[in-house]
Amino acid sequence: MSDTATDHDVVLVDFYADWCGPCQMLEPVVETVTAETAAKVAKIDVDANQKLATEYGVRGVPTLLLFTNGELVERLVGLQDEAQLRSVIEEYA
């Protein structure tokens, strides 16, 4: 993941789980916002990547981490609406 975070100016990392209802509701919001902003998205399944989730302090899903130039700048936990997510990304884009 570190390569993705440093290869792009703004990267939104979406920690999710297939069994998570709010994660499924958030997926189209993330896809829409990242398609319309400068952010790239990296999706991380917490069940398949438990070590990575622990490394980033993910305790619940969905958790969104926003990186700018490889630095973690925002952490959003829980279901986010499109306007909120777009606002956070555009602040750093």
Automatic annotation (TrEMBL):
The active site is at C20, C23. Residues 1-93 form the Thioredoxin domain. Disulfide bonds join C20-C23. One of its GO terms (molecular function) is protein-disulfide reductase activity. The record marks D14 as: Deprotonates C-terminal active site Cys. The record marks G21, P22 as: Contributes to redox potential value. SUPFAM superfamilies: Thioredoxin-like. It holds the Pfam family Thioredoxin. This is Thioredoxin. It comes from Haloarcula japonica (strain ATCC 49778 / DSM 6131 / JCM 7785 / NBRC 101032 / NCIMB 13157 / TR-1).
